[in-house]
Design goal:
The protein is 29% helix and 19% strand. By secondary structure, the protein is α/β, with parallel strands linked by helices. The protein has 3 domains: 9-56, Archaeosine Trna-guanine Transglycosylase, Chain: A, domain 4 (Roll), CATH 2.30.130; 98-209, Rossmann fold (3-Layer(aba) Sandwich), CATH 3.40.50; 219-441. The chain is globular, with a radius of gyration of 23 Å.
Length: 456
C-alpha cells in the first residue's frame, strides 16, 4: 500500500493484515491512512502483527464538531458524453425497461411470485406493510414508494391484500400523483382469481413498456450508489479508492453518487464533514452521525460493535479502520446533500444517505433513493443483489478468480499501479446500456426494509 507519512503500520499484500513499521508504545495510536484506527493495548515491536489481540478502538459516544471546510482540487472531465437509456414520460431516465411487482404487504409475497413466474415480471418479497406503527410503517411506505417511482421500472403493479395497515387507499396517498399507464393497482381480496387478474395487468404494462426505446442521454443523468460488504484488508487500498475515483469522475461530468452505511463512517466522519459544501449540509451531517449513535445507545449497544468476524479475518481490526476504508468510495468531491430514509436524490454531486451497513438494507435504501446502478466492493465475496444492477468489485485477485459467478470487476491490478478508473467507467456505461451484471444473470434481486419500531 502507499504509506502516508504519519502511518506507523503497513499492510502485507499477501494477507491484508497490518504489521508495525516501528516500535509502538502501549497507549499510542495506531495510524493508518494518516488517521488513528485505535490504540495499542500493549507494546508492539517493529515488524509485529497488529490486530485485535493488541489494538482497541478509540470510539465512544456523541461528539461535537466544528465546520472546517476543505475543498480538494479535482481533475476536470470531458462533457457531453452520452449513453443509451430510456427516457420516461416525466423526463427521468432509466437504464432497464423492466416490470416490477411491488407489494404493499408481505401477505401477498407468494401471489406476487406466481404472477412474476407467469409473466417475466420481477417481484420483491418482504415481511412488512402490516402490524407496524408510526415511523416504522412510514419507512416501509417511503421505501416502497421509491420502488414504484424508480425509472428502471417501465411499469409497476402495486399489489395489496386489502386489510393491511398499508392498504391501497393509504399507500396511494403516500404515492401522490402517478401515471395510470405506468402504475396499476390490484387488491387481492377483491378478485376471485387474483393471479389471473395480476397476469392481465402485467401484460398491459408490458405493452406500455414496449413503447420505450433506448436513445442517447447525457452521462450527467447517471445516478450511482456506493456500497461495500464483506470487506477485507485490501478494501481501503484497491476497490474503495477505485470507486472513489470513479465517483469523482462521474460527478465532474455532472452525475450523482450516493454514499450510505452511516455506522461505517464512525471514526472517519470528520473527512466527510470537512467536505460539506456549506454550513447547513455540515449541520445535517453532524445530526446524521449523532442520531445513528443514539440509535445504538437507545438499544443498549456500543457504537463500535463492528467490524464483523469476516472483516477481522480479512485483516480489519477496528471500526475506525473499516470506516476510513469505507468512506474512500465517496472520493474527494464535495458533499452536497444529506438524505433520510425514503428521500430521493435531489442534487447532482455526492449525497450521503441515512441507513445501516447491513448489505440488503443498504442496497435497498440506495435503490429507493433512485440510483440506477450500485457499485458494491467486497473482499470476502457475496452474491447479494438489489432491484437495480449491482456491480460486485473484488478487492483481491483470489476472490475474483474463485467467485467469478459473483464478481463483475477485479480491482486488484491497482496494487501494481493500474488506476483502472477509465476501465471501470467504461464498464459502468456498458451496464447502463444493457449489459447484465452477475446479480441480474442469476436472478439475485432482493430488498430488505429497515425496521426500528413496534410490531403489533
Amino acid at each position: 500500500m502507499q504509506i502516508n507519512r504519519l502511518d506507523n503500520v503497513d499492510v502485507n499484500l499477501n494477507d491484508g493484515h497490518k504489521y508495525a513499521l516501528r516500535d509502538i508504545k502501549k497507549g499510542e495510536n495506531i495510524i493508518k491512512y494518516g488517521n488513528p484506527i485505535g490504540h495499542a493495548t500493549e507494546d508492539i515491536p517493529a515488524g509485529a502483527h497488529v490486530h485485535t489481540h493488541n489494538v482497541k478502538t478509540n470510539l465512544s459516544g456523541n461528539l461535537e464538531y466544528t465546520y472546517e471546510p476543505v475543498k480538494y482540487e479535482l481533475p476536470t472531465e470531458e462533457q457531453g458524453r452520452t449513453f443509451m437509456g430510456y427516457v420516461r414520460e416525466n423526463g427521468e431516465v432509466g437504464i432497464r425497461n423492466e416490470i416490477w411487482i411491488v407489494n404493499t404487504v408481505g401477505c401477498v409475497n407468494k401471489v406476487a411470485e406466481r404472477i412474476a413466474n407467469a409473466t417475466g415480471a420481477y417481484h420483491f418479497p418482504h415481511p412488512f406493510g402490516c402490524s407496524q406503527l408510526g415511523d416504522d410503517q412510514t419507512v416501509t411506505q417511503l421505501i416502497l414508494r421509491g420502488m414504484v417511482n424508480h425509472p428502471n421500472a417501465a411499469g409497476v403493479l402495486v399489489l395489496g391484500l386489502g386489510c393491511e395497515n398499508n392498504n391501497m387507499e393509504v399507500f396511494r396517498k403516500v404515492l401522490g400523483e402517478i401515471d395510470e399507464r405506468r402504475v396499476r393497482f390490484l387488491i387481492a381480496q377483491e378478485h376471485d382469481d387474483e393471479v389471473a387478474e395480476g397476469i392481465r395487468l402485467v401484460e398491459e404494462l408490458k405493452e406500455y413498456a414496449s413503447t420505450f426505446k433506448r436513445q442517447p442521454v447525457p452521462v450527467s443523468k447517471l445516478r450511482i450508489g456506493l456500497k461495500c460488504g464483506g470487506s477485507d484488508g485490501y478494501s481501503g487500498i484497491t476497490a474503495n479508492p477505485l470507486v472513489g475515483r470513479l465517483s469523482d469522475k462521474l460527478i465532474a461530468m455532472g452525475g450523482s453518487c450516493v454514499l450510505t452505511e452511516v455506522p461505517e463512517m464512525f471514526g472517519a466522519e470528520h473527512l466527510l464533514m470537512q467536505r460539506c459544501e456549506n454550513a447547513e449540509t455540515f449541520k445535517n451531517m453532524v445530526a446524521l452521525i449523532n442520531n445513528f449513535k443514539d440509535y445504538y445507545t437507545r438499544h443498549n449497544q456500543v457504537i463500535y460493535e463492528n467490524p464483523s468476524p469476516g472483516n477481522k479475518k480479512g485483516g480489519i481490526t477496528t471500526l475506525e479502520e473499516k470506516s476510513l476504508g469505507c468512506v474512500q468510495k465517496g472520493g474527494l468531491s464535495p458533499v452536497v446533500d444529506v438524505l433520510d430514509y425514503g428521500d430521493r436524490l435531489r442534487k447532482p454531486g455526492l449525497s450521503v444517505l441515512n441507513g445501516p451497513g447491513n448489505d440488503i438494507v443498504a442496497i435497498t435504501n440506495l435503490m429507493a433513493a433512485g440510483v440506477h446502478i450500485i457499485l458494491f466492493t467486497t473482499g470476502r465475496g457475496t452474491p447479494v443483489g438489489s432491484a437495480v444492477p449491482t456491480v460486485k468489485i473484488a478487492t483481491n485477485a483470489s476472490l475474483a478468480e474463485r467467485k467469478s459467478g459473483w464478481i463483475d470487476f477485479d480491482a486488484s491490478p491497482t496494487l501494481s499501479g493500474s488506476p483502472l478508473t477509465n476501465e471501470l467507467f467504461d464498464y459502468i456505461i456498458k451496464v447502463a446500456e444493457g449489459e447484465k451484471t452477475k446479480n441480474e444473470l442469476h436472478g439475485y434481486k432482493e430488498i430488505s426494509i429497515f425496521k426500528d419500531g413496534v410490531t403489533l
